[in-house]
């Protein structure tokens, strides 16, 4: 099997040049913690994750600490957290996106993509090889969905 056999289409695009508030609102409304971002030509730019947004929302003193996992000594108010969120809302999506994520192509072998998924890549964008245009994505759920559809076809005699 190849990625094209199990990829799910991307129904809503978030554009790198749009305000980050658009992405934040979208993620909250759709309960999505990871979304692909494209430019106006549908060329894949990167992924925006809730984890990445949380990093930007950390107090500056905490984000400068290297190697320390706990900062329970830092106390802050709701207003301070809200202020950092509002700063993020003023950025563009492109300023916040992770541009280093892995991608796959429609003809990438599914086993290779599954190896990447198993290494904490929850979604892998599928892009056109020549243009890097976003075609869809695969995830654990899209693979299970594709297998269920095939099983349903087999059991119904279609």
Main attributes?
alpha+beta; 41% helix; 158 residues; CBS-domain
What does this structure look like?
The structure is a single chain. The chain is of the alpha+beta class and 158 residues long. The chain has one domain: CBS-domain (Roll). It contains seven helices and five strands; from the N terminus they run βαββαααααββα. Strands 1-2-3 form a three-stranded mixed sheet. The protein has a two-stranded antiparallel sheet with strand order 4-5. Strand 4 and strand 5 form a beta hairpin. The chain is elongated, with a radius of gyration of 19 Å.
Structural class: alpha+beta
Q: In percent, how much strand structure appears in the residues?
A: 15-25%
Number of strands: 5
- Work out the helix count: 7
What is the CATH homologous superfamily assignment? CBS-domain
Runs in which pLDDT lies below 50 for 5 or more consecutive residues are none
- CATH topology descriptor: CBS-domain
Main beta sheet:
3 strands, mixed
Percent of residues in helices: 40-55%
CATH class: Alpha Beta
What's the layout of helices and strands?
Elements: E1 14-15, H1 20-30, E2 34-38, E3 44-49, H2 50-57, H3 60-63, H4 78-89, H5 93-96, H6 110-118, E4 123-127, E5 134-139, H7 140-156
Parallel strand pairs: 1-2
Antiparallel strand pairs: 2-3, 4-5
């Amino acid at each position: 099997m190849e990625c094209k056999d199990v990829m799910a289409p991307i129904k809503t695009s978030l554009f790198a040049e749009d305000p980050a508030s658009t992405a934040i609102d979208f993620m909250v409304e759709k309960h999505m913690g990871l979304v692909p971002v494209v430019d106006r030509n549908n060329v894949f730019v990167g992924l925006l994750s809730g984890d990445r947004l949380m990093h930007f929302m950390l107090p500056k003193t905490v984000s400068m600490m290297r190697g320390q996992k706990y900062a329970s000594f830092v106390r802050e108010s709701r207003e301070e957290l809200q202020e950092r969120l509002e700063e993020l809302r003023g950025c563009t999506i492109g300023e916040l996106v992770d541009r280093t994520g892995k991608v796959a192509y429609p003809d990438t072998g599914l086993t290779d993509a599954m190896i990447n998924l198993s290494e904490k890549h929850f979604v892998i964008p599928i892009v056109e090889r020549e243009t890097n245009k976003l075609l869809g994505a695969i995830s654990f759920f899209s693979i299970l969905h594709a297998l269920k559809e095939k099983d349903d076809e087999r059991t119904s005699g279609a």
